[in-house]
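Consider the following assembly input.
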Amino acid sequence: MSGRCPPVDHAKNAASFTADAKRAHWHDEALWFVRQKRDRAAKSVPEWEALRETAEAVKAHTLKHLGYYLERFEERAKANGIEVYWARDAAEHNAIVARLLNEHGAERVVKSKSMLTEECGLNPHLESLGIEVTDTDLGERIVQLAGDHPSHIVLPAIHMKKEDVSRIFAEHLQTDPENSDPGYLTRAARRHLRRKFLEADAAITGVNFALAEEGAFVVCTNEGNADLGTALPGLHIACMGLEKILPSAKELGIFTRLLARSATGQAITTYTSHFRKPRPGGRLCVVIVDNGRSRLLRGEYAKTLSCIRCGACMNTCPVYRRSGGHSYGYVIPGPIGSVLAGAREVATYASLPFACSLCASCDNVCPVRIDLHKTLYREREEAIDIPCYAGKKRLLHLMSWVLQRPRLYGLLMGAMRFLLPRLPRPLLYSRFNVWGRDRETPMPAPRSFRDLYRERRSR
Amino acid sequence: MNARETILNALKERREAPADRPLFEKEPMRFDDLSEAFATALEAAGGEAVETEEVSAEAIAGHFRFEGRILDTRESGEALSRRDGIGLVIVEGAFGVAENGAVWIDPKERYPRELLTLAENVAVVLKKGAIVATMHEAYERIDFSGISYALFMAGPSKTADIEQALVIGAHGAIGMRVFLQGR
């Protein structure tokens, strides 16, 4: 991506996704379907809005007392026989996990979904040390075999068609390349991964919710991969961002009601699993990771740390649905990903706040009521100051200068009304007219609104 | 400073114990018939609720089609530690949740936790009277002090990771039924 300005250019990245119009349309429809399921699930709960408001308040409260709750969690977890480790950044996190695996003599690791380990680049690190890491969530396994990355935090392989999966599985799992039936492919993956589960020396999971009072944590899956993965080996490492903490199990009543309904429209995930002690004779380790979160907490984007990673903002986003997760160039895509990426590094991710129509649909589906579109608007103001956008910024200043001069503006508009219908097509749709790339430029009305208004007034 | 100190130091204004905390105070949804709501929700999750007084291993096995062994965790035995070829595992559920069809299952030390996911089919025996309306009441009921690993399970293992097509039986149970017993 070197030489690109800005380094992550959402519009350019999206171009390759939208080049296949049929596929892009399918992606859009598939995610809209998930959004509709979410709506039905939410509407079946009369107290839905009160739940969201309480979830927002609980998260704000927990962040306000984050130091207290983390220490409380550590104390209670240790009393339960859980080992607690702290990591300032991705490198420390990876080193701790590698050390624990090494102590255990682990060569084969099964991993359930964790966006944090994706953020930290754990898999390549462990692989470089000769440890085999198998992602066991089906979607994650598909993208892992493809040498790809998740394009959605809940539906990692949503950018792929079943024919792609069939091709990947035929290559790696020796399935029939002619058969792309999802049932057939899932069964093949079940057999393949069952072997991995039985062979594994250690398991790594993420954490959906950590409970300070109980010193326990919760992992939610539909496939049961976290449960099966952690049940057999003698070592379970759970990696959590420090914002995953809740005061107690009582609050789980709120969050387990919101999470799956927001994510996929299910009333609850199939497996909502609570880990409080190591299995007999085994080790249970929790790694608490900062990696920029405490800094984020001090700034104006602190509220984004309330996110429970349900993906609802992606499913509803008109830009995400039509541009695909990879176009964001960040580990987490969609509205929340844009906000987090921008808060982390404006210069690299300056195009992301503009990958937004400011429709605010994300704010309205967010189970913890993060004001995503307002935050993106604020991030635009920072993003426009980067050197790459100097030209754009000058143009905006010029625009503002014109708009402050109504007579000049009227004059220019008059000229446009005369010119536009007369311009030859090749000139009108030249490469400078980015708006005209995929659509017809609307022709101006013969008379301006101001003109008509003045006439009406004088009558 | 080590990592722990650095992180806690970065949070030093946030280390005070809270005086009180926000709670969900609104009256949550209610159901006229808890077991009916539970059955509907479980069905939506791909499972099935069966009302019956016949909860012997043979009677329960008759509701499933499978190959392999039956493990009844209500009786302890050495067979519980064998991992292969488990066609059906029968476990006790502590209580169910009407709003989502989930059952609280705590293996305690009575059987290894992997039976719940290694088995092709899971049968849960539950007292019909032990169903609560929502997750709020559910968590009021759980005493965490005795728990090592326990879970809410709602239906069989599933995935929709290939083109959003729902496939039952990802890694864990392919069939899951809850047997509601008593009144």
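Chain B has a mean pLDDT of 95. Ask yourself how this observation constrains the way the partners meet.
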